Amino acid sequence: MFQKYDVIVVGAGHAGCEAAVAAANMGSKVLLATMNMNTIAQMSCNPAMGGVAKGQIVREVDALGGYSGIVTDHTRVQFRMLNKSKGPAMWSPRAQSDRMLFAAKWREMLEAHANIDFWQEMVRGIIVKDGRCVGIKTSIGLEIESKSVVLTNGTFLNGLIHIGEKQLGGGRAGEKAATGITEQLHELGFESGRMKTGTPPRIDGRSLDWDKMEIQLGDANPSKFSYMDTPNNSKQLPCHIAYTSPEVHEALKEGFDRSPMFNGRIRGLGPRYCPSIEDKIERFSDRDRHQLFVEPEGWSTCEIYVNGFSSSLPEEVQYKALRKVEGFENMKMFRPGYAIEYDFFPPTQLELSLQTKLVKNLFFAGQINGTTGYEEAACQGLMAGINAHQAITEQDPFILKRSDAYIGVLIDDLVNKGTKEPYRMFTSRAEYRILLRQDNADIRLTPIAEKLGMQGLESRIEKLNAKKDNVAAILKYIRGLSVAPDEVNGMLETKSSSKIKQKLKCISLLNRPGIHLADLGEAVPHIKDFLAPYDEETLHTAETGIKYEGYIEKEKEMAEKMDRLESVFLKPDFEYNALTALSAEAREKLTAIKPRTIGQASRISGVSPSDISILLVHVGR
Description:
Mean pLDDT: 93
Low-confidence stretches: none
CATH architecture of the domain at 202-337: Beta Barrel
Number of strands: 22
Strand content: 15-25%
C-alpha cells in the first residue's frame, strides 16, 4: 500500500510544513502525516507572522527556500515594519494574516509538490531497529517504512485543555490529543517535561464599538517577507488597541480561586514573555491597565482575536471581565480562551542538527523542543527537514552558526542551554545583531542554500545577484561623491544638523545621525535621479552598509575569533569525567551534551572560562 519513504514528517503545523518542503526540495520523497488534513498550517493562536526577532527568522526561512514568507505575503491583511525608530538591527517585519487563507495557501503549495504525499491519521509511535528510526506506527495498526522521521507534534502530545475547573483532552480546541509517542520515547530513554501555553477568547467583531478604541493602521508603503515576486497589495485591514481597567481586573480576580493557573491543576511551565491576563494582574499588580490588541482574523470573517487577553479562567469570568473593557460593552463571544498543557522533550537531548542523540535518523522540531511561536517552529522544521535528508544521504549535517542567522542562535541556545520555559526568540539573544538584519537574510543565506543543493533557487539567485550588484553600485557612487554647502545646507538646517563650510564627501554626511540617502536625494537632484531606479530595500541595505560599516566590521572580527574555537573539535567519546581539573558541573554538562567543538562547549550553561582553558590545554591548544 505504501512505498518506503525517505522522510516521514509527523504533524502538519508550521514546523511540519516547513520540514516537509525542505526535505522535498532537497530531493527526498516525503510523507506528511497529520491527524486532520483540514487543519494543515492552522494558526492556532494569533493570526500573525513575524514581530521583533521573529520577523528576521521568517526572512531567513524564506532566504533558505522555505515557504512561510511566501504564504504570508499572499494572505496578509496588514503589514508593519516594527522598530523603525531604532537602528536597522532592530527593524522587524510583522504581518496580520487571513487565518483561513493562510492555511489554504500552505495546503495548495504542499499539494503542488510532486515529492510530498499525505496520510491522515494519528501516529502512535515510531519504528526503531538497531538504534535507527525506520518508520512510524499509526492508530489503526499500519506500519509505514522510511529512512528517517521528523516529529513535529506541537501541543498535541498528551495535550490537556483547561478552562476554569474544566479539563478536556485535546491538542487544540475541537481536536483530540495525540497519545503513544511520549510513552514510547520514555521506554527508549528520553526525558520529557510539561509545558503550557494559552490563547485568548475569540470575539464577534460586529458586537464591538470600534470608535472607542485606538486605530492601528498598517504601513503606508508596506514591505514584504519574501525576497521573491510575491504580492505587495496596499489594501489593508486596521487593527485596534483597547485597554483593561481596574474594574476589568476586579472582575477577573473573582475567578482566581477557580483558575488552574493558581490552584495547582496546571503543572506545566508557561511562557514568561507572553503571560495570561491573570498572570499579568498578579505579577504587575501596580499597573491599573494593560494593552489589548484587537486583531481581525481575515477579510471575510467578523471573528476577532484579542491579543493580550490569554486566559484559562472560567468562561463566565472571561465574559464578564471583557464586557467591562471600553468598546466591549456589548461584546459577544465565539469561544472562551483556554490554557493547554502538553509534553515536550528537553532539547539538550538533540544534536545541533536536531537529530536525537539516542536514536539515529529521528529528528524533533517545534514545540516538542520547548519553543513557542510559529516562527521558531517553522525554522526548526526547515532545519530538521534538511538534516533528515542529509543524514539518509550520508552527507554532513547542515548547521548554522550564531553569526550566520537567528536560526543558528535559536538552535544553539536550545541544544547547549536547554529551556525550562517556552523559548521565544528576541534580538537580545543574538550577539551579532548588526550582521543578522532582516534586510540582508538573502545575502547571508541564499548562497548557502544553493551550495547545499536546495532545488528551485534559480530565480532567487538571479534576484540576489541583481541586489548585490545594485548595492555595490550605490556604495561606489556615494563613496565617490562630494556635495557643496549650497546643495545641502538647507536640508541640514531642517534636520538640526550643523551646516558645512566647504565641499564634503557624501559618506561623511550619511554618517551623521538622522541623515539618510533619501534626504540627500531630496536636496541634490542628480543624487535623486541616480537613486530613483532602486527599490527601498536595496537602498536601505546600502545605507546600512555605509552608516554601520565600523560596527559591522567589528562584529565580523568577533565572529571570526569565535569561529577559531569552532574549528577545535572534540571527540564524541571524550571522557570528561577523567578530567578532574574540570568543575563537577562542567563534567556533568559536557558528558550529557557531548559538544562537537570547543566553541560549542563554551556556550553550555555551567561551563566556565577556566573549564574551557583546561579543555584547550588537553587538546593541545
